[in-house]
Amino acid sequence: QLVESGGGLVQPGGSLTLSCAVSGFLDYYDIGWFRQAPGKEREGVSCISRSSGATVYADSVKGRFTISRDNAKNTVYLQMNSLKPEDTAVYYCGTDYYGSSCISLRASGMDLWGKGTLVTVSS
Question: In the prediction, which pLDDT does 30 show?
């Protein structure tokens, strides 16, 4: 089970930190953040691997977003800075047990999803 939190309304240029609490052992999974805007497909935002902690980011968020994990707390975070209106979406975290999808930011191969948290960037 995954539970996202931390979404909300923020002005352009502002910051938010999303959290993804994972039931079970976080060490078993690569964890990714994805987002889905109205009328659009779910797209990959960032991923962090289970072993090395290697990270990947979509080009649209590089330099603005930072993903991190705390295995002791079974939680993955997404720090989002310099937010833009185009970042508005429902943000989901997902698990990748086999390690083939998350690192490629490919939503179709992810195993489990949370219910999402809404981020709205607007003045």
Answer: 93
Q: What is the 3-state secondary structure (H, E, C) of 4-32?
A: EECCEEECCCCCEEEEEEECCCHHHCEEE
Is residue 61's pLDDT more than 90?
yes
Query: How far is CA 1 from each of CA 48, 94, 113, rounded to the nearest angstrom?
Result: 18, 10, 8
pLDDT digits (tens, 9 = 90+) for 9-25: 999 999 999 999 999 87
104 phi and psi angles, rounded to 5 deg: -95, 5
Q: For residues 105 and 85, what is the distance between their CA atoms, to the nearest angstrom?
A: 22
Residue 12 corresponds to which tokens in the numbers above? 């352009």
Q: Give the DSSP letter of residue 119.
A: E
